[in-house]
Amino acid sequence: MVTSNPFAELSSFIPATVMQGWVVLMVVFVIGGTVLDMIHKGSAKYFFENAKRAKKSAKRTVGGGEKVSLAVQTVANEVLTSSEFANPRRRVSHLFTMYGFIIFVVTSVILIYSEQTSSLVPLLWHVGALMVCIGGYWFWFFIRVDVFAEGNPWYRLVRADMFIVSLLATATFGLIWSFVQSAGAGGLSRLFFALFAIAATFLFSTVLWSKFAHMFFKPAAAFQKRVIKADESRENLPADYDLTDPQVQAKYPDIPEYMGKNPPNMGLGIKREAPNHY
Ligand code: HEM
After folding, report:
1. 193 dihedral zone (left: phi>0; alpha: psi -120 to 50; beta)
2. Which single residue of 11, 33, 78, 131 could bond 222 by disulfide (Cβ 3.0 to 4.6 Å)?
3. The pTM of the whole model exceeds 0.85
4. Are residues 261 and 169 part of one domain?
């Protein structure tokens, strides 16, 4: 099952050109949805205005070479290894979901466009779908903040869940369809193929309303975050002061007044206690 192309058997009732046209339509939906999202929210405009404002309060200039190095660091950390997640479980779950989705999408396109492929590509298609399921269901049942921290039931759905739910439905129905089809159950296999196609179409056509486009916006935001630290503008937030430093105490005389000459470093308040069903 896992080494045969599930799309090849479809050609008996759906011409390959229809599936290929569907892929093109989904690409158009994703590009269109992302561009409309940027126009609607004014996020690109805000992003560039914010960057300009940050430049004005910059304390040092970040040159071209340094910017390239910051971009490389962003790709190596925030993009490729999901380093923004402080919670290791969330990070591992995101890595599963992200790499699984990329493998699943790339191999789907290969399988839809060329019926004759090695058994490796179908194997990767199944592995990709399985990785999305592992990362996604783990996130859905155990990691999501509204379930883990706020104690809401796992079945409570809100609009913000469109992305994760349609992503999981696509991968899950894809796997069931492939399994049922290779077991020879014709009617059931068409049913699960239809569910797979509906879920995937929903996933790619709702980019304007879902969290789908975060995969394009987050890298830009992560890069900008590195720039404002490098140019020391820090969005006008105070630096990370050492409260025992006499220069800092001279600047803020109420520190020794209230906390003594040697205030302890109490760390980030937000990290003191993990939120859990408050
Ligand atoms: C194939 C690409 C990707 C997939 C499938 C994916 C999947 C997901 C999922 C399922 C969530 C949870 C969303 C929810 O709360 O419902 C998420 C959140 C997040 N992703 Fe991704 N992601 C991808 C790419 C990226 C990239 C490239 C970055 C960063 C550079 C990124 C950064 C984040 C961050 C910071 C969050 C948490 C913030 C939030 O909940 O809004 N993701 N991602």
Report:
1. alpha
2. 78
3. yes
4. no
Q: Give distance in angstroms: CA of 98 to centre of ligand 1.
A: 7
CA 133 to centroid of ligand 1, rounded, Å: 15
Spatial CA neighbour of 232 closest among 66, 57, 109, 83 = 57
- Per the prediction, the chain carries an average pLDDT of 92
pLDDT digits 0-9 by tens, 107-161: 999 999 987 778 999 999 999 999 999 999 999 999 998 888 888 999 999 999 9
Closest CA to 2 of 117, 92, 120, 110: 120
Based on the domain organization, do 63 and 78 belong to the same domain? yes
The span from the CA of 244 to the CA of 188, in Å, is: 70
* pLDDT confidence band for 277 (50 / 70 / 90): low
Residue nearest to atom 24 of ligand 1 (CA): 215
The reply to whether 1 falls in a domain is: no
Looking at ligand 1, which residue's alpha carbon is closest to its atom 2?
98
Task: Please tell me if the CB atom of residue 221 comes closer than 6 angstroms to any atom of ligand 1.
Answer: no
Residues 103 and 66 occupy one common structural domain: yes
* Shared domain check, 219 and 266: no
Mutate to test the pocket of ligand 1, among 95, 218, 224, 225 (most ligand atoms within 8 A of CB): 218
- Kindly give the distance from the C-alpha atom of residue 113 to the centroid of ligand 1, in angstroms, as a whole number: 28
Write the residue with the smallest CA distance to atom 4 of ligand 1: 98
DSSP H or E stretch at residue 86: none
Q: How confident is the model at residue 210 (pLDDT cuts 50, 70, 90)?
A: very high
pLDDT of residue 220: 94
Per residue in 97-113, pLDDT (tens digit) is 999 999 999 999 999 99
Q: What is the Å distance from ligand 1's center to 124 Cα?
A: 22
Shared domain for 20 and 141, answered yes or no, is yes
Same domain? For 189 and 266 the reply is no
